[in-house]
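Explain this fold:

***
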Amino acid sequence: MTTAIWWLRRDLRLSDNPALHGALSHADTVVPVFVLDPGVLDSRYHRHAARRRAFLFGGLQALEAALRQRGSRLIVCAGQPLAVLASLVQETGATAIYAQEDFSPYARQRDAAVAAALPLHLTAGITVRHPDDVRKASGGPYTVFTPFSRAWRALPLPGASDLIPAPEHLHAPPGDLASAAIPAATVSFPFPPGEAEAQRRLARFADGVEAPIFDYAAGRNRLDVDGTSALSPYLRFGMLSPRQAVVTALSRMASAPSKAARAGAETWLTELLWREFYIFILYHFPHVLGLEFNPALRHIAWRDDPDGLSAWQEGRTGYPVVDAAMRQLAQTGWLHNRGRMIVASFLVKDLLLDWRQGEQWFMEQLVDGDPAANNGGWQWTAGVGTDAAPYFRIFNPILQGQKYDPEGKFVRRYVPELAHVPDKYVHTPWEMPLAVQHAAGCVIGRDYAAPIVEHALARERTLAAYRQAQERAAQNS
């Protein structure tokens, strides 16, 4: 009997898992192993992320149950991956370790150290394509999304036949292998963890002629409707295969009942490609985790405003759509993508605070927090990243609320102080006459904050700061 170790990291699923498939192809017995790695769990990105850690642990528990149904079990070990895996190789006599290749700087360093000492085989699975497989004709990596997307789609596309079924039965690992207890969740979150839930959500989103995926192009930006897939946490931890998600999008594009429905499915595919793009950017340009991608904007004179930062974090800015979104984040650990852009723009462009402060706060709060996507999104909104659009794109928080929450349903859900404010004023409550404020039970400055900044003046301040940074960069070049 031959033995292989299946080293799980962010692929907590049995279906369409190339690492598991590789291990099963190599050996009779596969030992599923998850390492509670302090290099990940105690890093600045993850140590304060209670909801994301709880979601991970819940996913491990769900996977353990699925493995036991198939005659196997999950081995959980705490410690440095190289030491843990070396010990397991010696205990089990494993002749190979299979894992899905990850692309963050830490993951690459970790895997290089393991591969230098142990028989590690890295497979696909974190992304649909490898970062080295989508390049310009010159050989360099793409740094703008649209040409990247065209090149990605020009390569052979995956189909249903490429998806790997989950194994029906697995041989049990040796009974004497010790396994640590999976840590218990200490906080609640609105995402039941596990592969089964991911599959249920995918089906709800994409199955049927009236599936939400067909309205995604229009509905994804509305804050007041359930127009997104809400699958990002499951993709983050590999409870759903990104290849299956892409295959689903392509399938729905082909079967769409109308041109508008096809546009909805294609828009969802584009969002999946944004995920790939930001992972590829991190792979090719790892310095973006701490530094602006655009060298011309690396010396912006950010303000030091702890009170403004706290007001933003706690949803007390006086701008209803900003406050509603920040309270949604605090209460649920998730935030609609339109909401993410609105609040990020407010922090950077209205308050002129360093985007890295927002990036760190998101990583502490988000169940789906991923360094690549989070960094890419923040740099995009701050106008300092790969995006080709000019830096002077600045969201107006009033207009954003009026456009994407026209009746104020989203705002009233998360900012109950505004529950009885007339629709006319729900996005500009400071404009209410005092008598209307009293009638609505919302006196500005008492029951709800007055705006902490005037948007028009803040916009001019930010444009000046960005121009000065560009001028300094030009002088020093």
In short: Residues 3 and 35 are 18 Å apart (CA to CA).
